[in-house]
Specification:
This protein is of the alpha/beta class. The chain contains nine helices and ten strands.
């Protein structure tokens, strides 16, 4: 009598984890005047499409360094970072930043001689991002309005805006570029509660509705509680904690 055989379950492309960014054995060391300081130690982690991540950790734990490496602003001392399976250094850091990843900086990094609107449209021109409908100007105005800046404010020089308004411009500029991964360093730090919640909702929609990978460094437990996955960075090690939301 022949014993029936069973075919082991296989993972189809549709059910495979949609990995987009992989950190393998990543360490980073800074050389000081007297000694070298290692801030990240052998980090292994895979970030997936359609997922909203937050990274928590005390000041000085290396959160911003992790963001700089993952966004292609710096290269690790040890280990590798790959986007869609391709090493960032081979893909080209400039190409990666222009075409595949956008960063919302804590210090805004706006072009101070431009208006808020020009900051957003210029980013679209540099990256070649095309609006879903209408012109780049119309799309930029809509993005700025969605985060609380009306047309009159959008056409002011950014140096005439408050810190909170400048942060909103930085967020709109990043959202305007149709990238695979969105990084943000304390993006809600200078915003009122209602606006901050609106930004969190936007991040969730980008991940869940547009299959973007969103990675946010924050001290905000409120923001972290609304993300899909919470990561903790302590003593150079990255670990994932349960999210009970």
């Amino acid at each position: 009598m022949t014993t029936p055989t069973t075919t082991p379950e296989t993972t189809t492309p549709e059910t495979a984890a949609p990995a987009v960014l992989r950190l393998a054995g990543v360490s980073h060391t800074y050389a000081g005047q007297r000694r070298r300081t290692t801030v990240l130690r052998d980090i292994d982690y895979t970030f997936e499409r359609g997922t909203f991540y937050t990274v928590l950790g005390p000041s000085g734990s290396g959160k911003t360094t992790l963001l700089s490496l993952a966004s292609g602003l710096d290269t690790p001392t040890k280990g590798s970072i790959t986007f869609n399976g391709q090493d960032l250094t081979k893909l080209g850091l400039g190409r990666y930043r222009n075409k595949h990843a956008a960063t919302i900086f804590q210090q805004y990094n706006l072009l101070t001689y431009m208006t808020a609107l020009q900051n957003v449209t210029t980013a679209m021109e540099i990256t070649g991002a095309e609006p879903p409908t209408g012109s780049r100007r119309t799309h930029a105005l809509q993005l700025l309005e969605n985060i609380g800046l009306d047309k009159a404010t959008a056409t002011r020089n950014v140096m005439r805006l408050s810190g909170g308004q400048q942060q909103r411009v930085a967020i709109a500029r990043a959202l305007a570029c149709d990238v695979d991964i969105l990084f943000a360093d304390e993006p809600t730090g200078n915003l009122d509660e209602d606006t901050a919640q609106g930004i969190i909702d936007t991040f969730r929609a980008l991940a869940h509705d547009q299959s973007k990978c969103v990675v946010v460094v924050t001290h905000s437990q409120q923001l972290a509680a609304q993300s899909d996955r919470i990561l903790n960075l302590r003593k150079g090690k990255l670990t994932e904690q349960a999210n009970d939301r």
